[in-house]
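Listing S7. Sequence submitted for prediction.
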Amino acid sequence: MPGENLSRDEARERAALLSVDGYEVSLDLRSAVGEHSGDGPRTFRSVTTIRFRCAEPGASSFADLIAPSVTAVSLNGRDLDPGEVFDGSRILLEDLAADNELVVDAQCAYSRTGEGMHRFVDPEDGEVYLYTQYEPADSRRVFANFEQPDLKSPFRFEVRAPEGWTVWSNGAGQLADGVWRFAETKPISTYITCVVAGPYHYVTDSYTRTFEDGGTLEIPLGAMCRKGLAPHFDADDVFLVTKQGLDFFHDHFDYPYPFGKYDQAFVPEYNLGAMENPGLVTFREEYIFRGKVTQASYEARANVILHEMAHMWFGDLVTMEWWDDLWLKESFADFMGSFALVGATRFTDGWITFANRRKAWAYRADQLPSTHPVTADIRDLQDAKLNFDGITYAKGASVLKQLVAYVGQDAFLEGARRYFKRHAYGNTRLGDLLSALEETSGRDMGTWARSWLQTAGVNSLTPQVLLTPEGRIEELAVVQEAAESYPELRPHRVAIGLYRRGAGPEGPVLERYARAETDVDGARTVVSELAGAEAPDLVLVNDDDLTYCKTRFDETSLAALRDGLGHMTDPLARALCWSALWNMTRDALLPAREFIGLVLKFAGRETDIGVLQMLHAWAESAAVHYVTPERREEVGRELCQGATAQLFAAEPGSEHQLAWARFFAHAADVPTAFELLSTLLDGTETLPGLEVDQELRWAFLEALAVHDVVGEKELAEELSRDDTASGKRHQVRCLASRPVAAVKAQAWAQVVESDELSNALVEATIAGFAPASQRELTAPYTSKYFAVIERIWAERSIQIGMDVVKGLFPSLQDSPETLAATDAWLSAHEDAPPALRRLVLEARDDLARGLRGQACDAAAG
């Protein structure tokens, strides 16, 4: 990795010197099939022609390429010696002319890590599938280029592929004389070019839009997946959401979709959720559901489809100049995904998911030592890779939701429309968008941006209520606090809701009876609008989730939640309260066992399936990381008993029944639970309405493997009935999860000492390596971890390096000794790559937070 980095200063210097007129890229992918001979990696031929201008003739620069070998390099008709100008990641370009033509003929390597040109062999039928993934800087693994977002250019691709294959790229393509040739793209950045090739199952549709001026836009639609997944592929629903999104964005952006066709490829072994390549969006194939899933999964897929579609404008049409302003695409796409989800699709409760799930990611990221402003300081590509995080996505989106409340929706959207028209096919910085928003809102965006975009940390808002002797509110104030390390007190547009207990037709309720929307600024803000209101049982600051903050409760409100959280009638308010209680647990303000007790008491009443599944994840995390060690076994039994009871109580065939079945598998830790899982698997016992399909079978088997109820033989038998790529990943995870020392040694060696596993199987092995019940078994790997991570970072691709460093950190060894070992490594490796140190610092922070939570839980008795 060290030789592959690119600094911001180098990129700025090159952008000031060069401008690109066009690329012609020719790839020969016929080598993807057949036997591979030789000791080196399997390669393909890549020939690139770049036409570009130089502002200072005679100057020197470089092109980017990561390839095993370069056959030939020609600059302005002059042949250069590849051995002299190519160092493995850069091609030196000297004595440039005003107008230049660079031709590079290289042998590039197929990838098994999901970076560059990924090659996948389907174990089900032996078919080979290819796709590219580049962000932030992996297109240089496929063709020579200037790998930075502000050197945009039109691209022409041509591809030779094995007979019988279909090839797709950003533009429309045709096959003639054995070559797939694609229409020239609009000016786009290198990282969003794309090629997908193979015997994919492909479904088509079309979208038509008629505009007020009488003009018509027709967009060919396509969706594809591996042939093995075709029986499960609900392309009709994908197309439905796609058309709804296109209508929504055309209605709101007043800028027609600019990239011709709109293909969506669901591809195997994908590292990300999806990627916004214009005209050819790529998704992880897990969004094609092989078994029954809850509506939360369909909602998540729809959100991702709309997120990537929003990028066609925010990111592809108008692109950030450098990765500092990554928020200009990711924050906007994250916000617009939920905005369109609620406004255009059947998932009208999408803001509940946003408040409960996306913001939880942001709150965690914003309290790590690596937190950063939404507009970050990105020194190089390694920084950029790690900045695809909860700050850039979820906090940025939350801040934009606050911005919409601050300037108004109409002004916000009109600012976006002007921004698109003003900067189409160009690159921008923070100020470009802010100036458009200032024009449309009349607000001073500089002050807002300094508080919300250019400072880090999350504020907490707590209500203070003073009552009159008659039981009415004399004064209600909101107290704002910030962490010492990030003391910024921000302006917040918030709604404050007053709730009281009552009786409903089906039992007790906790309902809102008063609401005020106001600006909170500074350390203490009095909400005069609520003076004189009847005394509340609960005050919910940030009702309706307008701002980004941690919500706290006064003692009266907390008592009301302990009593009646499950009786709150408004699902968004209920989700906000759950989120606040989880933040209090993570901050060691609420004992973990009390949080788990609330989940066991009220989760069975939760109507929103996404919130329920989030509660399951939080309860499990609390039990593993925040419960005092002396009470873990007891809490584990309580969770298992609670999950069992809810599984049997759930409505037969409902998605709640499915969610509780999956949680039961996670919580199972006693022989009676293992017996139930086993009998559900072999069919000797059934639960009315519960279909134990293949995906649920693997979930049950993993629970049994963790506790040594099933072994290698049973897992091999299961693979034989599900001999697919998905089945193989499940089997690998289950095999690694068995409580056997030799199993752990083998899993460690496969991930750490070898690079034979693909990215997907590395991920599966890591996922199975350290179940919570196997703390003692994995304890010896703490010292081994710290001994190898620097080597792993140096030798592996950044994606695999991140997976190993994050996934194998000894978080289960939650003791002061592990904290000290982490600190010792950090002290001894101050000169380690900053991105590597960041990952270790983040893991250390989670470990320290867990220890504080355990102390809080222990103090509760």
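Caption to Listing S7: primary sequence and predicted structure tokens for the chain studied. The chain is about 45% helix and 20% strand. The longest helix spans residues 834-859.
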